[in-house]
């Protein structure tokens, strides 16, 4: 087994042993969706949403939460903590370059976000008959661009925060903003139009997920913004990332 795969396995074990990361990062979005679906009124078609059930409308927002929890809170905090404790500096003296640890962290956290999102889809489908994305290819594209943009922002936080506390503070602001504009705190139909439109362009782009989920073709501009955000934040974090 290669040194990189050993690192991935080690980081995966650490992730699973972290109760907070495991429960909040993997399980909480699906649990919230199941809890909301237990309310009978939320399983009835709503005229305010064009006859769509609230539970169906809200599912993409839980995917926003799945991606945001892992990409904007767990990843930058862990990487900043490694830097603060000198883990990255010590690794530079070994044959295993710190970049491999960074890559392993990305693999583990992206995998966790994928599993969490899949749990939301499967739990909603099995428990309440939430329909699967009607335009799976568009949904896949929107999801990939959105999750890439979120993780690029998370890496930018990890690159700039000197301590885990600083990373946690910055990440919390980004996470709460993402949840607000992504319709997690309040459903998007309850937000002012201007706020909802801003949310279209805040990674991971909940409206593109919602459109493709309902069988519509997502608007091109939000997808382009997700791609540009991923490229800009990813490039910046790679340039300024410090190993100590």
Automatic annotation (TrEMBL):
Residues 4-195 form the ABC-2 type transporter transmembrane domain. GO terms for molecular function: ABC-type transporter activity. InterPro entries: ABC-2_transporter (IPR052902), ABC2_TM (IPR013525). Keywords: Membrane, Transmembrane, Transmembrane helix. Pfam families: ABC2_membrane. The keyword Signal does not apply. It is a multi-pass membrane protein. One of its GO terms (cellular component) is membrane. It is found in: Membrane. Its main location: membrane. The chain crosses the membrane at residues 21-42, 62-82, 102-126, 138-159, 166-186, 219-241. This is ABC transporter permease. It comes from Glycomyces terrestris.
